[in-house]
Amino acid sequence: MCAERRKSVAVAITGASGALYAVRTLAALLADGLHVEVVISDYGRRLLRDELGDQASVDRLRPFLVEKYGENVDAGSMTIHSNRDLGATIASGSHGCMGMVIVPASMKTLAGVAHGLSRNLVERAADVMLKERRPLVIVPRETPMSLPQLRNMVLCAESGAIVLPAMPAFYQMPKSLDDLADFMAGKILSALGFDHALYPAWTGQVPK
Q1: Contact 41, 48 (CB under 8 A)
Q2: Are 76 and 29 in contact (CB under 8 A)?
Q3: What are 117-158's pLDDT values in tens digits?
Q4: Integer Cα distance of 207 and 199 in angstroms
Q5: What dotted CATH number matches 3-192?
């Protein structure tokens, strides 16, 4: 089946701290055999290099994912779009992309989505998800938050987005940063409607 006809999900990476959350989510979606439409802002590109090293730069992203998360990443396919390309597939509701996550979401991007600005592909694709009533998951990463930022989250939620702050849990007794990234990626997949085994479900007791 050609990539364009496979189940498609969009992943946007913007310039807030949390690159590990982004790549773990991307790897999990690819391992599920999905076609992932990736769009990375200019500061998102810098984020990948600053937090994960040059080996995670955009032109090396696929090999980085395979090396870090295993060859099951090759089950899916990936298209990387320019954030300046407002004519890209995910800029149109007719494309049929089934959902989108912005991870991490900068406060600038949050504001752009909240107010429907569509100044770039990340914002336009998010606007498409809202107008088509498809899942849009926004993962803000900022602390503390100002009143305008809080109001922008409310506006996004009122428009139909799922606001999923980068707040990992600890009941699963994480032992590494990768465990925390697994938790956040799992929450994102759940919000998009996908099953996963990235962290144990709460059973009423802390795992021993």
Answers
A1: no
A2: yes
A3: 999 999 999 999 999 999 999 999 999 999 999 999 999 999
A4: 11
A5: 3.40.50.1950
Question: How many Cβ atoms from other residues are within 10 Å of residue 135's Cβ?
Answer: 16
The answer to whether the beta carbons of residues 121 and 30 sit under 8 Å apart is no
Q: Give residue 206's pLDDT band: very low, low, confident or very high (50, 70, 90).
A: confident
Predicted local distance difference test score (pLDDT) of residue 45: 98
Six-digit token string for 182:
């697994």
Alpha-carbon distance 136 to 124, whole Å?
12
Q: Are strands 100-105 and 77-82 parallel, antiparallel or unpaired?
A: unpaired
Cβ-proximal residues to 76 (8 Å cutoff; 6+ apart), any chain: 29, 30, 31, 32, 33, 34, 35, 36
Q: Which two tokens stand for residue 22?
A: 């982004």
Q: Is residue 91 predicted with pLDDT exceeding 50?
A: yes
Q: How confident is the model at residue 61 (pLDDT cuts 50, 70, 90)?
A: very high
Q: What is the DSSP letter of 76?
A: S
> To the nearest whole number, what is the mean pLDDT of the chain?
95
Residues 6+ apart with CB under 8 A from 140: 16, 104, 105, 107, 110, 149, 153, 163, 165, 166
Where do the domains of the chain lie? 3-192
User: Which DSSP symbol is given to 102?
Assistant: E
The rounded distance, in Å, linking the Cα atoms of 104 and 13 is 6
Q: Where are the alpha helices (DSSP H) in 71-145?
A: 107-114, 121-131
- Residues across the chain: 208
